[in-house]
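Might you be able to review the protein record set out just below?
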Amino acid sequence: MFAKVIHQDKEIKKIFYERIKEKVERKKQNLKDKIDEEYPKILSWLVKGVAVHNYNAKQLHDTFKGSDGEDELRRQMWALLPRDSVILPDFVFEPKKEDFIQIDQIIINLKGIFLIEVKTWSGSFLASDKGWKMKQGRQWAFVSNPTKQHKRHFELFNLWLKDNLPEIYPNIKDYIYPVIVLKRVDWIQSKYSSIPVVAGASGLVDCIIGKERGKLTSEMVETISEKLRTARPYEDKINFTEGTTKNGKKFVRVYGTKLDAEKIAQDYKANHKISEIREDKSDSNVFFFYID
């Protein structure tokens, strides 16, 4: 029997990519504005052309990094992992406002939650928290640091899980494991990396199977998987309180804008009759409505 594969909701993922694109375009415009401020007009067009080209190339590289290797690893894990495992490939999150993370694969089973960063690099590597080196001839040269990147993924994923599943998180927070997988590595030393680095599918399976049973239940695995599948972009939390007037009339006070109050009122409409939304006379940042 094979592991189960669950994909992120397509429509929600589309919204994520639209928001990421908007953020990229804003950064690109800010880059152009900064160049206009720092360079004479006669040179700014040339500098902007080079800077924007380099920026676009980096975004393209980051977006399409290692997709073939990720698909191959997913197929291998689907066949090799126990049937109680769930594989969630290529998931996007926004744990904080406009702070996005993309995790190559998430694997969930009774042993824990495994956050997988996949690299299709080939060669020999020295991995540590301070930096990664790749052997080039007889020399070792620094390369980008996946440990640093994946630590950020791990921290922000924990933040997202704590905010979205607060009733479960305390029981599972010690069973969330970041892992880096190198697909075509010849040799790797990673004893100075706080995140395990393994070679290929067999190394990842050994890493997962080698963990002791966690506190996850089958019901938790299902709940977490569904919550991840439908993970929505970040939304600012709206503060509101319920109260009762001296005459026994119930009301809801919303702290924010009228639009915030309209959102809360919409939720109350499902079970209550509500009055019109009014602005508090003593505080322009507070709105309220009555409920029956």
User: Anything to note?
Assistant: Residues 42-48, 50-66 have pLDDT under 50 and may be disordered. The first strand starts at residue 4 and ends at 5. Residues 113 and 263 are 34 Å apart (CA to CA).
